[in-house]
Every structure is written in C-alpha cells, then in structure tokens.
Amino acid sequence: MSDDLHTFQTEVREWLEHNCPEEMRSPMASEKDACWGGRNFTFQSEAQRLWLERMGARGWTAPDWPKEYGGGGLNREQLKILKQEMERINARPALYSFGISMLGPALLKYGNEEQKLTYLPPIIRGEIRWAQGYSEPNAGSDLANLQAPAVDMGDHYVLNGSKIWTSYGDFGDWMFCLVRTDPEAPKHQGISFMLFDMQTPGVSVQPIKLISGRSPFCEVFFENVRIPRDQQIGELNKGWSIAKYLLTHEREMISWAGLSTSGSKPLGETAVEIIGEAGGKLDDPFLRADIARFEADEMAFALTIERARDEVKAGVSLGAVSSWFKFFGTELNKQRYNLLMDINGSEALAWTGEASNDGKLARDWLRTKGNSIEGGTSEIQLNIVAKHILGLPG
Ligand SMILES: Cc1cc2nc3c(=O)[nH]c(=O)nc-3n(C[C@H](O)[C@H](O)[C@H](O)COP(=O)(O)OP(=O)(O)OC[C@H]3O[C@@H](n4cnc5c(N)ncnc54)[C@H](O)[C@@H]3O)c2cc1C
To answer: Which ligand 1 atom is nearest residue 134's CA?
Structure first.
C-alpha cells in the first residue's frame, strides 16, 4: 500500500472510531433497522440519525461521487479502504437509497449542471427518498411498452396513467419516472425520463400485499399531474437510453444480494452451530457438499465483481455484464436462503413469535423469490447475455 493510502486508511479508521455510534456497529436485526432517510422517515434511534448525518456530511453515503455535488470524491483504492474499515468494525450502511444506487448515476451522466446541483446533495444527505416509476400493468419485461402519457404544455407536462410494483411507493418523496411523450413514434423512441414530487396534486398511492405478508409494493396513479419542464432529464423522447443505463446500476445493486453482508455469519458456521459436528466436520454430508459449493461460488462471484469494478473505474462500460451479475447474484441469494431453510429444519417455517423474530427467516426466504423478478426477470437477463455477451442470434 502506498504512503498516501496508508495515511488515508489511518484517517478513515480514526474518523470511524469517533463518528460511528456503538449501536451502529452490529448487523441489523430486522428490516426496520435499515435507514432509508427521506422527509417522513422515523429514525429507530438517535444513533441511527447521527450516523446518517455524519456520513452524509462527509459524502460517504456516496463515497465515489464528485465532491462538488456533496459526494466523497474517493478513488477506487480509497473506496476499497473505506469499505474494509467499515467491515472491520461491523458498521452498518448509514443509508439505503434508490437515489444513490439508481438515480444518482443516471443524473451524473445525463443531468444538466443545475439538475445535478439540485438533486444530488439531498440524495447524499438522505433527505429525499426516491421511488422508481418504471413498470406498468402491461410493461414489465417489455418495459418499452409503457404508456403513461405526459403531454407537452410548454413550460410543463401533464401526466396521466399509472405505475405498478413501485417498491416503497408509499414512503417515496419523489419519483423518477418513465413516461410516454410521443405516442406515434416507435416504442423505444417516444419515452422520456422525468422527476416529480409525489406530493404533487394528482398523485395517489395504493399498497399491494405480498406473499411474505408485507406490503413494500404499491400501485401509483396519476391524474393530470403537472411536471415542470426543468424536471425532465436528458433529451425529450430519448429517455430509453437513460432508463437502460439506470437499469445496469439497479441490476448491479440487486446482484450484491448474492454476497453475504458485513457481520453475517458464513453458512458453514451457522450449520455447525445448529446441526453439530462429527469428526470435525458438519454432521450432514449432503448439506456439507452443498454449502461448500455455495461458498466457493460466492467467493468466485465476489472476486468477479471486484474485477469488474476495477474495469469500470478504468473506463470499461459494465453494460450487459450487469445482466449476468444480476442473474448469478440473485440465484446465489436464493440458494443461500434455501440452504438456511435446510439448516434450520422445520423451525425455519415459524411465521410469528419472539423466538423466530416474527418469522424473519421464512419471510426473508420468501422475499428472495422476488430477487429474480425485480429489476428485470432472470429470463430477460439471460436473453441479454445471449444476445449481447455471447453474440447468439436474437
Ligand atoms: C421485489 C420487486 C420489486 C420491484 N420494484 C419495482 C419498482 O420499484 N419499480 C418498478 O417500476 N417496478 C418494480 N418491480 C417490477 C419488475 O420490474 C417487474 O415485475 C419485472 O420487470 C417483470 O415484469 P412483469 O411482472 O410484468 O412480468 P412479465 O413481463 O409479465 O413476465 C412474466 C413471465 O414471462 C417471462 N418473459 C416475459 N418476456 C419474456 C421474454 N421475452 N423471454 C423470456 N421470458 C419472458 C418473464 O421472465 C416472467 O417469468 C419490482 C418487482 C419485484 C418482484
């Protein structure tokens, strides 16, 4: 490690020691511990609020975004060090944010200067929570079929129609949304990318209940919603390029589900604790083989992602590779939870009660089923891999 990096590491370590509250140095016990920020977010504790405030002020909720927009301005090596130092103390992410994982990269590439200065700093500080308005009842895999019409009225657009499967739509402050601005053009060429405050008159939100018993999904309806012209990102009718670029970031983010999170125990250790050992080995040869295979795949996947990130920093576009990551990462996460269910046996099916933390494992297991649908289904990712990576005929 160079002297500069070594100095940086020492500074990061000291800063984290002083600024990461003790309470934020343990794995999250439940979804409720995730900090999403936003106008109406209820912090679980003062420690959670402080952690977001401090990390946001330092720009470390978006460590590699440019400093002029409030980001941390870190390079690839510094970013790795920050990550390692956070893992070292089991620090939780200060902020979960679609603004950071999806909208921000698109704004950095396609937004004008004024839009970057307006929207990026509040995203970094976790002040605005964003919802993704892409899917419609007849536009999921065939996203370019979306219909919600936004009619040009000069200084503003008027939006009608609806969106579906909007994750946390009921908590969203603002929406980034794909709208149809030219109904006559071929479907990919009449789409624009717009942002609007979900408090705008004419926006209404209806939660949808899921198999896990929770309702993070919503249907969002638009009735003559006024969107000022300066909230359109990029060129009119060229929103499809932005949509696709954002999706590469969404898919990369979802693929991380395949990797174990900071502080979580390796599957092998969990299995030994619950099932026990015989002759120094997990006392179930079939499960042992499955876990070994899983852990080897997980390690290989983590290394592949690291390599791809280095390539991205060196200017190589991730493009269709994000589809492969999304496919593999989400399949890995499903395998992880299938194995956890095997390890825990029938107790894993508990749905309520303190002992099961209100059925956390069973609900998390069911939630993984959505991993290979959200952000584009596995079949669609494989189609993209076949066409754009393997060069097979479409
Ligand atoms: C947990 C979760 C969170 C989500 N969050 C959001 C959100 O915040 N915002 C948002 O806009 N959307 C969100 N979605 C919606 C998601 O993007 C869509 O569900 C997804 O794109 C699939 O679309 P669909 O549900 O309409 O299925 P369909 O497109 O109807 O697909 C049905 C089946 O047909 C298959 N299929 C379709 N076309 C092809 C093809 N050409 N080749 C092979 N197979 C095909 C699919 O793989 C799938 O198995 C979320 C979904 C989930 C599960």
So the answer is: 11
